[in-house]
Each structure stands twice: as structure tokens, then as C-alpha cells.
Design goal:
mainly alpha, 116 residues
Length: 116
């Protein structure tokens, strides 16, 4: 059984990784909140005292381009390989194709939201 001290340590380390991920992404709290579809006032607590709700963790990882395993455990690489690959494709795509890719990803995101 996990003790109270262990739970508090896990919680604080998780919150620290959330804050670090956003800083590393070079984004503001408001930008991350917008990407997650929530208000900044709600998001700000996740960098100081609360843990991100489970149903929003993947959205946070995508918004900050961080690896889910790293966020949850602190192990492995912080930057998501998938996000890096998507960014590489976007960077190398002509503008007309870039817009289509972004629209497709937004469509997939909406579809996933509808199924949850």
C-alpha cells in the first residue's frame, strides 16, 4: 500500500513535470489551456496544487509535445517522438499541404472527443 508521503511526492513531481513541459514548449498557460479546450483559470492550478484530470492528460501531452510515459513517470524522453515527427512533416510541407494536415488533425481530435 502506498503511504501518504509517497502519494504527495508523486503528486508534486507530476506537477513539476507539467510546469516543466509547458516551459519547455515555450507556451503560456493560456495557450496550453486553449489547446486543451479549457479556461486558463482552471489550468493554472495544475502547475501548483492539483493533478491534471485523467481525461485531459493526453491533450496536455499533445499541446506540449511531451511523451505520456515521461509525464506520468519521469522516465524516458520528455519530448514525444510522435510530436517531433509530426512537426518535421509540417515543417517540410508546402503551405497548402500544411493547412490540410492541421485541419485533419483537428478533425481527428474532434472525433476522439465525441467518442469519449
Amino acid at each position: 500500500m502506498i503511504g501518504v508521503d509517497e502519494k504527495n511526492l508523486f503528486k508534486q513531481k507530476f506537477i513539476d513535470r507539467v510546469r516543466h513541459a509547458r516551459y519547455s514548449a515555450g507556451k503560456t498557460q493560456e495557450e496550453i489551456a486553449d489547446a486543451m479546450g479549457i479556461k486558463q483559470d482552471q489550468y493554472k492550478h495544475w502547475e501548483t496544487e492539483r493533478v491534471i484530470p485523467q481525461h485531459l492528460i493526453v491533450k496536455f501531452c499533445l499541446a506540449c509535445q511531451v511523451d505520456l510515459v515521461w509525464l506520468l513517470t519521469g522516465k524516458g524522453h520528455m519530448k514525444s517522438i510522435e510530436a517531433a515527427e509530426i512537426q518535421r512533416v509540417l515543417d517540410n510541407a508546402p503551405p497548402w499541404k500544411r493547412a490540410k494536415i492541421v485541419n485533419f488533425v483537428k478533425f481527428l481530435d474532434r472525433e476522439l472527443d465525441d467518442k469519449q
